[in-house]
Amino acid sequence: MRWSNLRINHEFYNVGHLYEGAVAHYQATGKRGLLDVALKNADLIDSLFGPGQRRDVPGHQEIELGLVKLYLVTGEARYLDLAKFFLDERGQTDGHELYGAYAQDHLPVVAQEEAVGHAVRAVYMYAGMADVAALTGAQPYIDAIDAIWQDVVARKLYLTGGIGARHEGEAFGDAFELPNHTAYNETCAAIANIYWNQRLFQLHGHAKYIDVLERSLYNGFLAGVDFGGDRFFYVNPLAFDGDYRFNRDDSRERMPWFNCSCCPTNVVRLFPALGGYLYAQRDDRLYVNLFVSSQTTAMLNGERRHCPANGLSVAGTVRIQIDPEQPVHFALGVRIPGWAQGTPVPSDLYHYLDTQKQDEAVQLRVNGAETPLQIQDGYAWIAREWRAGDAVELHLPLPVRRVESHAAVTENRGKVAIERGPLVYCLEGIDNDGRALDRTLADDATFRVDWQPDLLHGVTTLRSHGDDGDLLFAPYYAWGHRGLGEMVVWMNREAA
Ligand SMILES: [Zn+2]
Questions:
Q1: 18 CA to middle of ligand 1, Å?
Q2: Which residues keep their CB under 5 angstroms from ion ligand 1?
Q3: Residue 449 in contact with residue 420, Cβ under 8 Å?
Q4: Same domain, yes or no, for 411 and 326?
Q5: For residues 318-346, average pLDDT
Q6: Which residues pair with residue 384 across a beta bridge?
Q7: What ranges in 227-337 are assigned the alpha helix state H?
Q8: How far away, in angstroms, is 419 Cα from ligand 1 center?
Q9: Does 191 share its domain with 325?
Q10: Could you tell me whether strands 390-395 and 285-288 are parallel, antiparallel, or unpaired per DSSP bridges?
Q11: Total domain count for the chain?
Q12: Pair 42, 67: CB distance under 8 Å
């Protein structure tokens, strides 16, 4: 029977994905076939659920995101209203029997202040709340979503940008509960974190959300898929003893499929959407968010302009070329990542340990001339009249950084992790005489940085040199490609 078990069955989750797929298909092809199917389905649900009709909520959120997209392509306000209805009904005992904190159905959404329960359900819901907040301006929504984000970023975020500490219930843990071997960190949850932070950026225009998005994208998410693109981790721990069957379906290597197939299909929809995360525009402001070889075209003050930006080179240089058809005045905002300013995450959950003096600073040049950094909301702003051939060059220092956790993360006490730029590094046994878990890194160990084109499809490795011998570090996203063996992100620290 349809709609007979909304708590457990995933009808609304599935049709939400259908709506999103239909909108993407329509935007990519201009064809309405699948979009009309989605609209017919949404109209059916809208005819059954809502004020004065059946009042219930999805056990697994997702339809909210799809309905917002249907609203954005059709302009039909009832789709936005239905999304808001499903959100507003959560925690309302007079509408349905509550499904509890596992499904974020323990309190009205505007009264929720902490991230609880099943992580993917939760963060799809938070992303939907951010959509509704942005489109309606509803301040209680904005207040709630900001408080929950603060809870995640300050207490429940893995260094890799993964979320969801517990296997049991695929759920967020308590504050600072961030175990490494048994971390859940579902690939879908990292993807949800990307969706949510992109929407919060679009709502608030602050680069700190892109800092979290970038961390999730290049680490917690990317580890979930292998280099061939056809094998997946559902679960993404930060330590592995070579034996524990952490991955779904009792596996411990990347798998081609799962009995619950959410992560592979979610990866498939994130990759083609990546282009949408690089730039953003609001009025006469153009934002450069991620440093990826690319080009884009935008209308600014009525002028078309092209902005090909190259990726972040191994040496830390980003080049952006601007080619307006006519000279045009606008503000270019180039994101200055937190990691380039001594702040790995926008909270005190993690901090850089190294006290070694950094000689290099962030440098910005416009047409070769050094330009003072005018940072606002995490962006260096350059407002001027742009002409064809203008070039911006950004230099971001990429030192090897040691990271320490907030003292309340008991699992990481006395431990240190290594980062360089946006990448989290790990130790694998295969590179270190079979042993990773018991390794110790001294505070005074030095590092050599090597680009290795033939290792793991090309990675920059870090080799530390200290009293305990040499250790070889590789990017976390590339772990688990060379057989079963130990892996660790947080290693023992030998303090100076
Ligand atoms: Zn999943």
A1: 16
A2: 186, 188, 262-263
A3: yes
A4: no
A5: 93
A6: 330
A7: 262-273
A8: 26
A9: no
A10: unpaired
A11: 3
A12: yes
Q: Which residues contact 276 (CB under 8 A, 6 or more apart)?
A: none
Quote the mean pLDDT of the chain.
Answer: 94
Task: Output the CA 444–ligand 1 centroid distance in Å.
Answer: 40
Do residues 260 and 298 share a domain?
no
From ligand 1's centre to the CA of 316, what distance in Å?
A: 33
CA of 185 from ligand 1 middle (Å) equals: 10
pLDDT in tens, 224-250: 999 999 999 999 999 999 999 999 999
Q: Count how many Cα atoms sit within 13 Å of the Cα of residue 26 in the half-sphere of its side chain.
A: 19
Nearest to 477 by CA among 119, 163, 187: 187
Q: Give strand ranges (E) for 130-259.
A: 239-240
Residue 264 and residue 187: Cα distance in Å, rounded?
Answer: 9
Close Cβ partners of 240 (under 8 Å, ≥ 6 residues apart): 181, 246, 252, 479, 480, 485, 486, 487, 488
Write phi, then psi, for 147 (nearest 5 degrees).
-65, -40
**Residue 35: inside a domain, yes or no?**
yes
The token duo for 35 is 């979009």
Say if 352 falls within a structural domain. Answer: no
A 10 A CB-CB count for 156 gives: 23
Last residue of a domain, one of 277, 310, 343: 277
Q: How far is the CA of 123 from the centre of ligand 1 (A)?
A: 12
468/471 Cα distance (integer angstroms): 8
Domain hosting 292: range is: 279-335+361-395
CB neighbourhood size of 338 (10 A): 20
Whether 262 is catalytic is yes
Do residue 272 and residue 294 come from a single domain?
no
Active site residue 426: no
- From the CA atom positions of the chain, what is the Rg in Å? 23
Give residue 188 CA to ligand 1 midpoint distance, Å.
4
Same domain, 409 and 386: no
Residues 389 and 446 in one domain: no
142 belongs to a structural domain:
yes
Q: Would residue 53 count as lying in a domain?
A: yes
Q: Which of 188, 262, 307, 426 is catalytic?
A: 262
Catalytic residue among 170, 186, 404, 428: 170
Report the CATH number that the domain containing residue 327 is assigned in CATH.
2.60.40.1180
Give yes or no: residues 32 and 126 share one domain.
yes
| Phi, psi angles (nearest 5°) of residue 73 | -90, -25
Task: Name the residue type at position 357.
Answer: K
Other CB atoms within 10 Å distance of the CB of residue 253 = 13
Of 243, 277, 311, which residue is a domain's last? 277
Average pLDDT of the segment spanning 207-217: 98
Query: Pairing state of beta strands 328-335 and 379-386?
Result: antiparallel
Do 67 and 214 belong to one domain? yes
62 alpha carbon – ligand 1 mean position (Å): 13
pLDDT in tens, 448-475: 999 999 999 999 999 999 877 899 999 9
Q: CA nearest 457: which of 226, 135, 157?
A: 226
Ligand 1 centroid–CA 102 distance in Å is: 16
